[in-house]
Amino acid sequence: MANLDSVLTETRVFPPSKDFVAQANVSGPEGYQALCDEAERDFEGFWARLAREHIQWAKPFTRTLDESNAPFYKWFDDGELNVSANCLDVHVDNGRGDKVAIIFESDDGKTTQVTYRDLLARVCRFANGLKALGYKTGDRSIIYMPMSVEAVVAMQACARLGITHSVVFGGFSAKSLQERIVDVGATLVITADAQQRGGKTIPLKPAVEEAFGLGGCEAIRNVVVYKRADVAGNWEEGRDVWMHDVEAGQSDTCEPVIVNAEHPLFILYTSGSTGKPKGVQHSSAGFLLWAHLTVKWTFDLKPDDVYWCTADVGWITGHSYIAYGPLAAGATQVVFEGVPTFPNAGRFWDMIQKHKVSIFYTAPTAIRSLVKAAEGSPEHHPQKYDLSSLRVIGSVGEPINPEAWMWYYKNVGGERCPIVDTWWQTETGGHMITPLPGVTPLKPGSCTTPLPGIMAAIVDETGGDVELGKGGFLVIKRPWPAMIRNIWGDPERFKKSYYPEELGGTYYLAGDSANRDTDGYFWIMGRVDDVLNVSGHRLGTMEVESALVSHPLVAEAAVVGRPDDLTGEAIVAFVVLKKARPDDAEAAEIAKDLRAWVAREIGPIAKPKDIRFGDNLPKTRSGKIMRRLLRVVAKGEEVTQDVSTLENPAILDQLGKAL
Ligand code: 6R9
User: Fold this and answer.
1) Contact 89, 256 (CB under 8 A)
2) Is 54 in the pocket of ligand 1 (CB under 6 A)?
3) For the domain bounded by 535-656, which CATH number is listed?
4) What sign does the dihedral 360-361-367-373 (CA atoms) show?
5) Residue 199 and residue 343: Cα distance in Å, rounded?
6) Whose CA is nearest to atom 7 of ligand 1?
7) Which of 533, 534, 567 to mutate to test the pocket of ligand 1 (most atoms within 8 A of CB)?
8) If you measure from the C-alpha of residue 279 to the centroid of ligand 1, how many angstroms do you get, rounded to a whole number?
9) PTM N6-acetyllysine: at which residues (predicted)?
10) CA nearest ligand 1 atom 4, residue
11) CA of 397 to the centre of ligand 1 (A)
12) Cα dist. 541→171, 242, 478, 571 in Å?
């Protein structure tokens, strides 16, 4: 993770090459400055111009930004459009129907190509099928699918009908799935019989059955199942239906349903600082605009590029930078079913070579694991592959440490490709602070400078600007089109989480701390709330604590993060059992049990790496758990901080020594 030391000592700077600048969509400091100046001069005019240029409106908007009910901002709100028509029909109608939209590579290395014309036809057939089942605008669907063309078809078909989708990552448990089905009020689930990853077939539909078994899912009328592996399972006639049967006999054309600009395109759940995940609600027009525009700006997308984002559609990155942005921009993109280490650690490099990928977007955690893998198996080192097709490489999800950055730059980018280290969030809808590859001199570990129109700043706890070089809270001072619109069903929580009164109520509070160096570059330090970042996945400490406490043996639990070389942060849980503190052998058994329990409650990504048992937790006299002390203990360091408010200082010793 970037820390203050790296900010102060990182002096390497990598400017873009002249050749790159000469051909870039946003070119040179002048190109960037012109856009920033335009946004400063006429904020609404800037966004209105971009929205007119990048969206095909069924009914043009006349109002750009409505701030009357801030922070519930509305953008382009008397305009109307259809998102799927803007991702598919626009290309087919403009003579680009034969262009490949998706190169799909399966786990076992088979490749299929889908043109824009094919994709449109499939989306239409599926949308018609959903219509025939009675689904319509305003309904909500849950999509619980593996990486596949079908997942993109499902999302786009929902968008075509104005059905608000909520994608649940295939690695999440039945319990997490059930909570989301209930919270979002879904009437439809789209899933697959199984997923294929790392040479294994992992059933998926049984988790849906299990979710139903937990109750509260009675509103679901259909479970549509994509047949991926032909694994037999429970089948409820009348409710369950194969995806191919839904499409069968349907027409290749389906009139897109025109919706308001503010119509919720999707709701995506993410972790916050309390136990319950937040349903981040996104708009149609504002989201689409930014997903499209940032693909052009940040990735410098050109008609001949082959673009590959390795994220899963279960995360925001897979929404903005697989399912919507690249399609709106008319890109040819790779969609990959498998994992980076199967059949060997050269999989990514092999795929870049094979498909002549020119834009590659992945996460620091993947890079770090591949650095390690390349050391262990030199035959799969990226330098053994022809990666000369690459021209832009990107990073997302967590701070990238300068060493991993340098490795990526040298070994994957051939010291030729700019790295776009993109800072953004589920809530922001798209990139916010990132280098532009034809503009920004790069510093390893810094996400550099805000995109034009994004008024990012660092403030203190009262909302006052801090001087350069001093850390503080990262905020966005003005709204932007792709911003979160609400937390589904919980407007109060939306206001409290993102527009706290303490900061004046008008700044968007990102929840990250950051520092700005004397060149104005941003350095993200990590979360300031109780949110952990494990392998680029957001997890609330409260979420993991609630899962632990729901175990019959557990009386109390506190969860903190600890820096980890591979996963960025690792989860450390401090647990007090209802019975006496166990001896080492028993502790190992119970810890194993608790890990499996958390995997069942949330998903395997939430499993604590380290579980320690104590007679109690360090608490203040008023009973508050002192997490800052637990963070020190978790790192294996001596507590040197002030512990005078601590009720039971001896406990620190016990937890420090405990297994
Ligand atoms: C897109 C995404 C958001 C949190 C965010 C921050 C961290 C993401 C980063 C980064 C440093 C980057 N984060 N990108 N930190 N540099 N380039 O990851 O969304 O899952 O909502 O996570 O991830 O802490 O607040 P999400």
Assistant:
1) yes
2) no
3) 3.30.300.30
4) negative
5) 8
6) 398
7) 533
8) 17
9) 624
10) 425
11) 4
12) 19, 38, 30, 9
CA–centroid distance, 555 to ligand 1, in Å, is 33
Ligand 1 closest atom vs CA 317:
1
Q: How far apart are CA 464 and CA 456, in angstroms?
A: 13
> Is residue 271 lining ligand 1, measured as CB closer than 6 Å?
no
Whether 511 is in the pocket of ligand 1, judged by its Cβ within 6 Å, is yes
504 Rama sector, left if φ>0, alpha if ψ -120 to 50, beta otherwise: left
User: Which residues line the annotated binding site?
Assistant: 197-200, 317, 397-399, 421-426, 512, 527, 535, 538, 549, 551, 554
Give the pair of three-digit tokens for residue 251: 């027409």
Which residue in the block uniquely carries the two structure tokens 């039971």? 648
Find out whether the beta carbon of 280 lies less than 6 Å from any atom of ligand 1: no
CA–CA separation, 462 vs 472, rounded Å? 11
The answer to whether 162 touches 85, Cβ cutoff 8 Å, is no
Provide the 3-class DSSP secondary structure of residue 226.
strand
The string of DSSP codes covering 430-467 is: S--B---TTTPPB-TT--BSBPTT--EEEE-TTSPBPP
Atom from ligand 1 closest to the CA of residue 433: 17
Q: Where are the alpha helices (DSSP H) in 3-89?
A: 4-9, 18-23, 28-41, 43-54, 83-84
Burial 390-407 (b: 16+ CB within 10 A, else e): bbbbbbbbbbbbbebbbb
Residues 6+ apart with CB under 8 A from 9: none
pLDDT band at 8 (very low <50, low <70, confident <90, very high): very low
**Other Cβ atoms within 10 Å of 464 Cβ, number:** 10
What number is the ipTM of this complex?
Answer: 1.00
Amino acid present at 54: H
Q: Are 378 and 349 in contact (CB under 8 A)?
A: no
What is the sign, positive or negative, of the torsion defined by CA atoms of 175, 180, 185, 189?
A: negative
Average pLDDT estimate for 368-392: 92
pLDDT surpasses 80 at 589:
yes
Report how far residue 54's alpha carbon sits from residue 329's, in angstroms, rounded to the nearest whole number: 9
126 C-beta closer than 6 A to ligand 1: no
Res 647: pLDDT: 79
Residue nearest to ligand 1 atom 1, measured at CA: 425
Atom of ligand 1 nearest to the CA of 510: 25
Report the DSSP pairing between strands 486-487 and 278-282. antiparallel
Report how far residue 617's alpha carbon sits from residue 574's, in angstroms, rounded to the nearest whole number: 7
CA dist., res. 392 & res. 415, Å (int): 11
> What token pair was written down for 431?
């990139």
Domain-wise residue ranges, the chain: 535-656
For residue 422, give the ligand 1 atom closest to its CA. Answer: 17
Q: Which two tokens stand for residue 587?
A: 């502790």
Q: Could you tell me the pTM of the whole model?
A: 0.92
pLDDT at 653: 86
* CA 527–ligand 1 middle distance (angstroms): 9
**Residue positions counted in the chain:** 659
**393: Cβ–Cβ under 8 A, 6 or more apart, which residues?**
359, 360, 361, 362, 408, 412, 413, 417, 418, 419, 420
